Automatic annotation (TrEMBL):
It comes from the Bacteria. InterPro entries: CHP03085 (IPR017519), DinB/YfiT-like (IPR034660), Maleyloyr_isom (IPR017517), MDMPI_metal-binding (IPR024344). Residues 12-106 form the Mycothiol-dependent maleylpyruvate isomerase metal-binding domain. This is TIGR03085 family metal-binding protein.
Length: 210
């Protein structure tokens, strides 16, 4: 059975291939080549991928990123499309789904929404619910640096507290859009923000995400 992670992986590969190596992304300073290198390093260089979160491994991560970015772009896209090596932890279906469904969704939108002719994508209800379930678990982590209280709300009324504090800003949108917002893509997310004007302004430029 296909998983959300597998579907998003293939979509990301297709978008990267269509956009080309020098096309921009929503990741500040990254081209599609840089983003592709990031995805490949994350899956194939666990000794360096820890640098995404740990400063002590940052130099190793930068070196690995540079090495992979120098490879032919077509090879990077192929490695993303074919997936991780068999010995990788990401080769385990359940872990792949847990770790990569959100990752690949966000990066696919990083590519899609950075292009001038991008169009909205309607997510199926099952995937949308899956994103919400993941976001509920990650909300406090992604919102830990919020300068204001942050509440996430779906159109159906379901809510999750991402950061306690005052004043409070309530961000309303579909789970996919809320996911993008919480992963630092505030400008690209189709959401509405309710709260004091100054608090909203602070939140829109805050460093959200893992």
């Amino acid at each position: 059975m296909s998983t959300h992670a597998k579907r998003e992986r293939l979509l990301l590969a297709d978008l990267l291939e269509a956009a080309g190596p020098e096309a921009p992304t929503l990741c500040a300073g990254w081209t599609c080549r840089d983003l592709a290198a990031h995805v490949v390093v994350r899956e194939r260089r666990p000794d360096a991928a820890g640098g995404i979160l740990l400063n002590v491994l940052k130099a190793r991560l930068d070196k690995a990123m540079e090495e992979y970015a120098a490879k032919p772009y077509e090879e990077l896209v192929r490695l993303i499309r074919t997936g991780p090596p068999k010995m990788s932890v990401y080769a385990l279906k359940q872990l792949d789904e847990a770790a990569n469904a959100v990752e690949f969704y966000v990066h696919a939108e990083d590519v899609r929404r950075a292009q001038p002719d991008w169009s909205p994508r309607e997510l199926d209800p099952v995937f949308s619910d899956s994103l919400w379930s993941r976001l509920e678990k990650l909300a406090r982590l992604t919102g830990r640096r919020s300068p204001v209280g942050l509440v996430l709300r779906r159109p159906n009324g379901q809510t999750a507290v991402a950061h306690k504090g005052a004043p409070v800003v309530t961000v309303t949108g579909e789970p996919g859009e809320l996911t993008l917002f919480c992963f630092g893509r505030q400008d690209a997310a189709a959401v509405t923000l309710d709260g004091e004007k100054e608090a909203v302004a602070k939140l829109t430029v805050a460093e959200l995400g893992i």
